[in-house]
Amino acid sequence: MAIAKAERLMNLALCLLGTRRPLSKRELRGSIEAYLEAGSDDAFNRMFERDKDDLRELGLVIETVENLDGDTGYLARRDSNRLPPITLDAEEAAALGLAAKVWQQARLAGAASGALQKLRAAGMPEAEDAYEVHSALEPRIPVHEAAFEPLMLACRDRRPVTFDYRKGNAARPEQRQVEPWTLECWRGHWYLAGWDRGRGAERVFRLSRITGKVRSRAGVFTAEVPDVVTVRETVESWAGETATRTALIRLRADSGYPLRARAISVRELGDGWEELEIPYGHGLDAWLVEFGPDVVVQEPADLRADVVDRLRAVAKD
After folding, report:
1. Helix, strand or coil for residue 163?
2. What's 21's DSSP letter?
3. Nearest to 223, CA basis, from 193, 201, 198
4. CB atoms within 10 A of CB 45
5. Distance from C-alpha of 231 to C-alpha of 225, rounded to nearest angstrom
6. How far apart are CA 26 and CA 5, in angstroms?
7. 3-class SS of residue 6
8. Alpha carbon of 287 to those of 142, 180, 253: distances in Å?
9. Which strand (E) or helix (H) includes residue 93?
10. Any idea what DSSP says for residue 209?
11. Which of 95, 199, 268, 284 matches a 20 to 30 Å C-alpha distance to 67?
12. Separation between Cα atoms, residue 42 and residue 48, nearest integer Å
């Protein structure tokens, strides 16, 4: 069975690399013997989608093109799948090894490990990892959200997606149609930046608030994808990192250390409470709710109202 699948993947890759124009599913099915033997259209479609995803996981860049008739075709351009010679010194190899360790608890662990093996096989020097022996701290990026993997692949392949999303102050989730740009991690939470088709504007979504499955949709992006710096700034702003004013909060003593780290000033109030002045930007209300009864917002009034609304929405559950 393993040999049959490897042969099928090889044949599909050769077809996609050997064509000068996008090939439809119908044409690919007629060109590959294993697809001709599929018992039904549904069986073929499932097999083809799995094979296409497997080839992409192996590093083949497969383009999805929609012609004027609305039919979808696939091809793998040779110039997009040809890598220049890679030369790395010992310091660069050490940096790559450290970066790969970041993903050991995430879905990218296998891909990172496989990439290092391929580079070493191509002659990348074996660098001593200074962090492995002499440090008790290891880099990690935790990924617990089920939406991470499908959104990561959708960002990579430029595929529109739909998912149900529940805002912090909403009782029920709403369906969103999004053109995903990139994923960013801020303060231990993952965010998706992209174009919200329903609202006709760029939006940022926190992955922990995505409910149900992320579903891919056919078609191409309708909005221009901004450069990386712009997207990162958007995520930073929506995650509350860009401060436009300050907020005054009461914080229970010996709690809320991430808030204390950002505080501009701290004043003891007595009875186990302290008053903090912290930078106030978009998304601060959602962050404060996470500290529950240990935080009380004093000013501004609109921030206090937003936090109360979020707590009431949680209480209704």
Report:
1. strand
2. S
3. 201
4. 13
5. 9
6. 19
7. helix
8. 18, 24, 18
9. helix 90-102
10. G
11. 199
12. 10
* Contact predicate 128/166, CB 8 Å: no
**In the 8-state DSSP scheme, what is residue 77?**
-
* 3-state secondary structure string across 115-138: HHHHHHHCCCCCCCCHHHHHCCCC
Which residue's structure tokens are 């962050």?
287
Amino acid residing at 147: A
Q: What span, in angstroms and rounded, lies between the C-alpha atoms of 297 and 249?
A: 4
How far, in Å, are 54, 80, 248, 260, 266 from residue 277 at the CA level?
A: 51, 51, 5, 9, 7
Q: Identify the three-state secondary structure at position 216.
A: strand
Q: What is the pTM of this model?
A: 0.50
DSSP bridge partners of 192: 183, 205
Interhelix angle 109-121/90-102, rounded to 10 degrees, is: 160
The pLDDT tens digits for 63-108 are 988 876 778 899 998 887 776 677 777 777 777 776 666 665 555 5
210 neighbors 163 (Cβ within 8 angstroms): yes
Task: Name the residue with higher pLDDT: 70 or 204.
Answer: 204
Nearest to 64 by CA among 55, 75, 56: 75
Q: Quick one: which of 99, 95, 119, 118 has its CA closest to 109?
A: 99
Distances (CA, A) of 63 to 22, 212, 215: 8, 27, 19
What is the rounded CA–CA span in Å between residue 95 and residue 115? 13
Q: Is the pLDDT of residue 131 over 50?
A: no
Q: Are 166 and 172 in contact (CB under 8 A)?
A: yes
Residue with tokens 């102050």: 169
**How many residues would you count in the chain?**
317
What 3-state class would DSSP assign to 302? helix
- What gap in Å lies between CA 67 and CA 44, rounded to an integer? 22
Measuring CA to CA, how many Å separate 156 from each of 59, 117, 132, 183? 11, 22, 31, 10
